Automatic annotation (TrEMBL), chain B:
Name of the protein described by the UniProt record: ATP-binding cassette domain-containing protein
Keywords carried by this UniProt record: ATP-binding, Nucleotide-binding, Transport
ATP-binding keyword on record: yes
Listed GO CC annotations: membrane protein complex
Top-rank taxon, per record: Bacteria
Cited PROSITE patterns: ABC_TRANSPORTER_1, ABC_TRANSPORTER_2
Record-linked InterPro entries: AAA+_ATPase, ABC_transporter-like_ATP-bd, ABC_transporter-like_CS, MacB-like_ATP-bd, P-loop_NTPase
Gene3D superfamilies (alphabetical): P-loop containing nucleotide triphosphate hydrolases (3.40.50.300)
Entry GO MF terms: ATP binding; ATP hydrolysis activity; transmembrane transporter activity
Provenance organism: Halobacillus litoralis
Length: 744, 233
């Protein structure tokens, strides 16, 4: 159809408008494709790796050695595969390298490059750790004066999220890594853990009880409670929400913009449409013609988005690869269906909705289209008849009427600004949360430097610089929630539980003090009751929540030590660990040491990445804001060009005309911004609450005054930038052209 | 192609007011003739042209163009009727500004199964040398020539012209009239011209006068004058 040429030329003439909206669509598709490709890659690698390399269903640490014969008995009795694995931690420069013996049945190491260690002088280390410490294959690494040659890069199915302690929040390969040696070469005094694998991934009924009858159970961890295994799934679930929500919103913005542009185009060309209909063009031919615009935007946006998304998924997957130790077991780990969805859905939605808008205009009789618009529709809406719009000077009334007459535009600006603000504040709140989380949790509440966990129950008197505590994992009656219960000294100086700066230490007399994540998971607050369950003997205890502390990590519950000991059946003076300032001396009885500084360092080492992601979010928010606002204000100038021209003819200056026509939307921008602030906080809080059960931490989502100010400045600058761009268009409105349009 | 209208009525709403645009309008336009409909603004002449052209509907009465009775035609059938038989020429030309002269004419050509030759048509309206110009680069007269070519290239049986010279000066207007006469003679196209310019009636084979939606007078011109000689008013 020759009319196609008209589409090409209009697109060329209005390239800014159509390219802008295509970029919006491109951003939506790019985000979806890149995130989805990275996530499906992660998901596929995780599934394959955990299945093919027999990821543990659980592991446990026994108080004393369990004989191999006993393991065989349990294997037969509970239809489970059990295997012992030894490990020891070594200090390498400023980091800890955890070295494991190679297993054959459970948590089988995968050697990605090089080969598995075979002799006493060889080991394989995790690739990300090697990269951070510039180790290459063939290099030597010294562990406790013994030199090992690196023969390969290894991935362990139970160290996908490579954290040193299970309570650690963030993985940091600069501080911690894993390695494997051949079984025979492991002569150091290490820990032994027993790994278990079942076909369905569950712990067999009664198994845990059998083990605890046989030996003191120092630790028993299901794979679902193991962050090194489970966190990747949490990340996948969390990111899956992001992969659809954010792109869908941008997609909605871009489709709404296309529809507005189409409606505007059809309005502008109503006479042309009427003429074509009078000449004998069929509606479906005209629909096809006008759909050319949607096809251009749709194909440009989706193809561009797919390309950019596929490109972006590479660094994103690499980022994930640094974060999660998952090997690439096949060439194509990502789901090709992502590309199909990323292409088909936006295009289909765009074409269907545009067809609807075009068809609506084409329902009008050709004669009506051939007449000037004013003649066919000269009525005022009820809003325009409001007394408010009748009062005041001309400028005020004109501006208000413009707002009222363009309700859809006002709404679009409102939504666009809201979206940008929420995105911007999300970034700022997250950024602040990280700092606040470290500040409150690690500096104000957890005052110890080391938490030392012992292999057996201790009863001896502790030293002056130590505070004893009892730690045990408890369940909640009728809930699938695991609680880390701490029995502590009321007057200890190492844990200063507080909320909003107020000490809660005196609240112990009224019941238990719980962490913010636990309160969110259980949906309880001060004064509510919790029914605790001892998973070993099924004893229960009802406790009142005395307070919720500003402690954002872990499903923790704090009680007086005697009370917890009583519930667990321990002697009153017993404890399982100590909080202390000094570094613990090497002792056989020490089972695990939590180094608070390491946790803080780990947090701070990720600040750079957080800053980058916040900056990325801010740039994204501004970009979307600028596109949305500029497209809209541009459209407004175009739509009002006859009035603009008339104002110019009458002697109004460009600045005054701009105030009359463009700045009309300032109140909408301001209202949208201030409405978005509580919305951003609430939606982030909601997101955090839904994720808290899997992540075990809760980010504070308070909006600080400085965020409001920064957000305000950014949004205002974005708005001014858009106005600036549109003012250039306003200045270019030719008097003759605009007046001619009015005559037509 | 002959046109017959029999007691056609048409009313429409203009705000609160009901306007009777056509009252019992009956006419007969013989095949291959030029007919001019004269009358002041609001006399119903445009409405009559529009219902004959199938871009507006009438309330009662009957219209027959060639063998096609328009009374009960559905939207799609009316479109086909316009596509096959009708060429429209408007006072404001209504060209597509983003298409060149040739492309604007192509818009009409695409609709026809037996279109005229592009070069011949553009040469006949004197626009071949300007075929690559855009409407904004043309004068009003030239734009109307392109509009005529667009209507003509379809090889329509009837050409409906709504004030084709209304926006033009005398010289240009007369040139357009010459072109319409040429089309009528060369292709045997029935030409219906509505105008408030009384002089244009002098070149038509017959003249119809309208007032307040009624046909008040109609007569045949035994000796139609050459367009050059019409009295311009």
């Amino acid at each position: 159809m020759i009319l196609k040429k008209s589409v090409y030329r209009t697109l060329k003439e209005k390239k800014f408008q159509y390219a802008g909206v295509a970029v919006l669509l491109l951003l939506a598709v790019m985000l979806y494709v890149s995130l989805s490709m990275a996530i499906t890659t992660l998901e596929s690698r995780n599934e394959t790796f955990s299945k093919d390399y027999k990821q543990e269903s659980f592991h446990f640490v026994a108080g004393e050695d369990v004989a191999d014969e006993k393991l065989s008995v349990w294997e037969d009795e509970y239809n489970v595969t059990l295997e012992k694995r030894e490990y020891a931690d070594f200090q390498v420069e400023d980091s800890t390298l955890r070295v494991f013996t190679t297993t054959e049945s459970v948590n089988i190491p995968y050697i990605a490059e090089g080969r598995a260690p075979t002799s006493d002088q060889e080991l394989a280390i995790s690739k990300v750790y090697a990269e951070k410490h510039q180790y290459e294959l063939g290099d030597a690494i010294t562990l406790d004066d013994r030199e090992f040659e690196i023969t390969g890069f290894v991935y362990l199915p139970d160290y996908i999220y490579m954290v040193e302690q299970m309570t650690d929040l963030l993985a940091d390969a600069e501080k911690f890594g894993v390695a494997v040696v051949s079984g025979s070469s492991f002569s150091v005094n290490g820990q032994t853990e027993i790994l278990g694998w079942t076909e369905n991934g569950d712990v067999p009924d009664g198994f845990r009880e059998s083990v605890s009858e046989e030996t003191a159970l120092l630790q028993f961890v299901n794979s679902e409670d193991n962050p090194r295994i489970g966190f990747v799934e949490t990340e996948i679930e969390g990111a899956k929400g992001m992969t659809t929500t954010l792109p869908l919103f941008i997609l909605a913005l871009s489709i709404a913009m296309v529809l507005m542009l189409m409606k505007r185009r059809m309005e502008m060309q109503r006479k042309e449409i009427g003429t074509l209909m009078a000449l004998g063009y069929r509606k479906k031919e005209l629909v096809r013609h006008y759909l050319g615009y949607a096809w251009f935007i749709g194909l440009g946006g989706t193809v561009g988005g797919l390309t950019a998304g596929a490109g972006l998924s590479v660094p994103l997957s690499n980022l994930y690869a640094n974060y999660f130790n998952l090997p690439a077991l096949s060439m194509f780990d990502w789901d090709p269906f992502v590309l199909v969805i990323g292409f088909v859905i936006p295009l289909l939605l765009l074409i269907l909705l545009t067809t609807f808008v075009i068809s609506r205009t084409l329902r009008t009789e050709p004669l009506t289209l051939l007449r000037p618009k004013e003649m066919s529709n000269g009525k005022k809406s009820w809003l325009e008849k409001l007394p408010l719009l009748q009062k005041g000077g001309f400028i005020r009334r004109f501006r208000l009427r413009l707002l009222v007459r363009n309700k859809a535009r006002s709404f679009y600006i409102f939504i666009g600004v809201m979206f940008s603000t929420v995105l911007l504040l999300f970034g700022l709140i997250t950024f602040n949360s990280m700092d606040q989380l470290v500040e409150t949790t690690y500096k104000e509440i957890l005052k110890y430097d080391y938490a030392v966990h012992y292999q057996s129950l201790m009863t001896e008197e502790t030293e002056d610089e130590q505070s004893p505590f009892t730690m045990n994992e408890l369940g909640v009656v009728d809930e699938d929630v695991k609680i880390t219960a701490y029995g502590m000294e009321k007057d200890n100086e190492f844990i200063q539980l507080s909320a909003e700066g107020e000490s809660l230490q005196s609240d112990f007399s009224e019941g238990a003090i719980i962490s913010a994540p636990l309160a969110a998971v259980l949906g309880v607050g001060e004064g509510d009751e919790i029914n605790l369950k001892n998973s070993l003997n099924s004893d229960t205890m009802q406790l009142e929540v005395a307070a919720v502390a500003d402690l954002y990590i872990g499903n923790n519950l704090y009680l007086p030590r005697e009370e917890l000991n009583g519930f667990l059946g321990f002697p009153d003076e017993a404890y399982t660990g100590t909080w202390q300032k000094q570094s613990p001396e090497n002792s056989e009885n020490v089972y695990m040491v939590e180094d608070k500084q390491k946790a803080i360092d780990s947090f701070e080492s990720t600040t750079g990445a957080t800053r980058a992601s916040v900056a990325g979010m801010a740039v994204f928010a501004v970009l979307i804001g600028v596109i949305v606002l500029t497209l809209l204000t541009n459209l407004i100038v175009e739509e009002n060009s006859p009035s603009i021209s008339l104002f110019k003819v009458m002697g109004y200056h460009d600045k005054e005309v701009s105030k009359l026509v463009l700045s009309v939307y300032t109140p909408i921008v301001l209202i949208a911004y201030f409405v978005s602030i509580p919305l951003a906080s609430l939606s982030l809080q909601q997101t955090m609450n839904t994720l808290v059960q899997e992540t075990g931490f809760l980010m504070p989502t308070d909006v600080a005054w400085w965020m409001v100010v920064i957000g305000f400045i950014v949004i205002l600058l974005t708005y001014w930038l858009s106005l600036g761009l549109s003012k250039r268009k306003l200045k270019n409105v030719s008097l003759q052209e605009a007046l001619k349009k009015q005559q037509d | 192609m002959a046109i017959f209208a029999n007691q056609v009525n048409k009313t429409y709403q203009s705000g609160e007011v009901t306007v009777q645009a056509l009252r019992q309008a009956s006419l007969e336009v013989p095949d291959k003739k030029i007919v001019t409909i004269l009358g002041p603004s609001g006399s119903g002449k445009s409405t009559l042209l529009n219902v004959i052209g199938g871009i507006d509907r009438y309330d009662s009465g009957s219209i027959k163009v060639g063998d096609t009775v328009l009374d009960q035609l559905k939207d799609r059938q009316l479109t086909d009727y316009r596509r096959k038989f009708v060429g429209f020429i408007f006072q404001q030309y209504n060209l597509i500004p983003t298409l060149t002269v040739e492309e604007n004419v192509e818009v009409g050509r695409e609709l026809s199964q037996q279109p005229l030759h592009m070069k011949d048509t553009l040469e006949k309206v004197g626009m071949w040398d300007k075929k690559d110009k855009f409407p904004s680069q043309l004068s009003g007269g030239e734009q109307q020539r392109v509009a005529i070519a667009r209507a003509l290239i379809k090889n329509p049986q009837i050409l409906l012209c709504d004030e084709p010279t209304g926006a033009l000066d005398e010289e240009t207007g007369k040139n357009i009239l010459k072109l319409l006469k040429f089309v009528n003679e060369q292709y045997g196209t029935t030409v219906l011209i509505i105008t408030h310019n009384q002089g244009i009636g002098e070149m038509a084979h017959s003249v119809i006068r309208m007032k307040s939606g009624e046909i008040v007078d109609s007569y045949e011109n035994e000796n139609p004058v050459h367009p050059e000689k019409v009295t311009w008013s």
